[in-house]
Amino acid sequence: MNVPVAPSSEASLLIVTTSEKSIQQSRKKHETQMFQLIRDTLIASAGQEAQIQPFKLMGRGHEARVTLSRQLAQVLRSVDLPCSRLSGYGPSFCYPARVFEGAAARLKEITGLEILVSSIDRSQYSIQGDWKHGSRGP
């Protein structure tokens, strides 16, 4: 069923779609900048922690390890961070908890928002979604 549309409503529809696209593009740009800030902060935190003490992620007496949410794992896919690979059911890679604790504190200091958050038992880190809607950013 084709309903004729007045030219003025077509023009307003075009303006609305154009503004929606520009909003999506600016959100995408902000998201990309935030993900790059997360990567850079984690790399710096890993370097600082490696200078303090070497990482021991496997074997008896290993240090505290964390896993990542799917979104955070995707953001960090190409980043070279110290990790250990575990076989079996569940997440494959475990990362040193002290790297993520330091990076989460540094990101909160930089942005004023909690971007990296841990689960209740501090075994998994994920990206907090509030920064997407906030006015503050990098």
Plain-language structure description:
It is built from 3 helices and 5 strands; from the N terminus they run αβαββαββ. The protein is α+β, with helices and mostly antiparallel strands and 138 residues long. It has one domain. Strands 2-3-1-5-4 form a 5-stranded mixed sheet. Strand 4 and strand 5 form a beta hairpin. Helix 1 crosses helix 3. The longest helix has 46 residues. The radius of gyration is 21 Å and the shape is elongated. The protein starts with 6 loop residues before the first helix and ends in an 11-residue tail after the last strand.
Précis, in short:
The chain has 138 residues and is α+β, with helices and mostly antiparallel strands.
